[in-house]
Design brief:
Order of helices and strands: HHEEHHEHEHEEHEHEHEEEH
Oligomer: single chain
Largest sheet: 5 strands, mixed
Helix content: 10-25%
CATH topology of one domain: Translation Initiation Factor IF3
Number of strands: 11
Number of helices: 10
Shape: elongated
Structural class: alpha+beta
Strand content: 5-15%
Length: about 425
């Protein structure tokens, strides 16, 4: 029975090798009875190409990003600004000539980017080939600056217009502000001021640090270099107006400094012996000066606008004055001492132990009364005379920083209790 069942089963179908798998299987006797071979392909594959020997091709140069120092086929730029380009316009005195340079005269504007020659201190506007600062400034530049300032400013602002501009520069109205720090009014800061003037007629400037010892110079330099006008000042806060006829599209070209130049070497501030005194008297003067009670203590990056009047008042009762400068940078209190020497005037005794000790001298005479800028001031008079702002016009004072003055300057607060 088992054998019969095997013969009754269907035979296994033969699958042709060239038959697709999805087609049914069929029986083929070609391979069994005939010597059948499949025909060659009608489209034979081409033979693989022979590999050519590899040649030594030159390597592709690496990508080099564009640089502002690459001035191929570019002419040096020219600026019509009628003043010398310096790194700082408030911390560099042209009256003191340097005795040397700390580096070669590499222009901070980049090689060949400007048609003015860098002398190591500034880029003069008078003579591009100048190598020293001995020559006096061209009187034509002063006249040119005055004409440009008058053309841009136009008619003076009225009291209502000034008050409206000052109101828009309050902290609650706008956050736009330019900070003037220890380096003073730098050259690149001029470009920042013009950028702010694109969006508003006036800009708020906050002044702190060494330049605030001589705020009158800061205000003067700002107006001369930007051709604007200061319409309000409260402590270290200034409001700089651009002018009625100012056109942002016709702003002057200001070349930017690509790096900070090294400061030149100036004569020593502290001499071995004070003029008119012997060596022993100088040593005794320094010991006595360090033992004198400190007149005030300067805070770091504070407002020092009342320092010069304080030292002048102290010289009426004592010949030596000591100012505590603990926490300040060495370069900062040296610059402060240099400013006191020129503004008070006085004689520098020592900078030891982070102290500034000044001596009034043997034949001291109180200086005549000068026009110092008060804590709160307005610049409304077109002729340049300053007038104090009345209390009715000071509605914006509460929005200014009342803590800009140093804590040690109590005399300034007594002059105006609202400050």
């Amino acid at each position: 029975m088992f054998v019969i069942r095997l013969f009754r089963q269907d035979p296994i179908p033969f699958a042709h090798p060239h038959t697709p798998s999805n087609r049914c299987f069929c029986y083929s006797k070609l391979r069994d009875h005939y010597a059948f071979e499949s025909p060659p392909s009608l489209s034979p594959k081409p033979p693989p190409p022979e590999l050519k020997p590899r040649q030594n091709k030159p390597l592709k140069p690496r990508y080099k990003p564009p640089s502002s120092l690459d001035l191929a086929d570019k002419k040096p730029k020219h600026s019509d600004l009628p003043f010398d380009f310096q790194y700082s316009y408030t911390e560099t005195s042209r009256l003191v000539r340097p005795i040397g340079l700390r580096e070669p005269k590499f222009s901070p504007f980049g090689p060949g980017r400007l048609d003015r020659k860098w002398t190591g201190v500034c880029a003069p506007a008078v003579d591009p080939k100048a190598s020293s600062l001995e020559s006096m400034e061209d009187p034509k530049l002063e006249e040119k600056r005055r004409v440009m300032w008058e053309n841009i400013q136009g008619e003076p602002l009225t009291g209502a217009e000034r008050k409206a501009l000052v109101e828009t520069c309050q902290k609650k109205k706008t956050k736009r502000q330019i900070n003037l720090g220890r380096d003073g009014l730098t050259h690149n800061m001029l470009n920042d001021i013009y950028n702010h003037w694109k969006h508003a007629e006036a800009v708020r400037i906050k002044c702190l640090g060494v330049p605030t010892v001589d705020m009158k110079n800061v205000c003067t330099q700002l107006e001369e270099k930007t051709f604007g006008k200061i319409i309000h000042r409260h402590g270290g806060f200034l409001v700089l107006y651009r002018g009625r006829n100012y056109n942002p599209k016709k702003r002057p070209f200001i070349p930017l400094m690509l790096w900070r130049p090294h400061e030149p070497i100036y004569p020593r501030l502290i001499k071995t012996t004070i003029d008119g005194l012997s060596i022993d008297e100088t040593k005794e003067m320094r010991k006595k000066g360090l033992a004198v009670p400190a007149l005030t203590r300067l805070s770091k990056n504070g407002y020092y606008g009342s320092l010069v009047p304080m030292v002048r008042d102290a010289f009426l009762s004592c010949e030596l004055v000591r100012i505590d400068c603990q926490g300040l940078e060495k370069s900062d209190y040296k610059k402060i001492g240099c400013k006191l020497r020129d503004l008070v005037p006085c004689i520098l005794v020592t900078f030891e132990k982070e102290q500034i000790v000044v001596w009034r001298g043997k034949d001291y005479q109180p200086s005549e009364s000068e026009c110092f800028l008060s804590v709160r001031e307005s610049f409304d008079d077109f002729d340049g005379n300053t007038k104090c702002v009345d209390s009715d016009d000071d509605e914006d004072d509460e929005n200014f920083d009342n803590n800009c003055c140093d804590a040690g300057f109590q005399s300034a607060a007594k002059q105006n209790p609202k400050d």
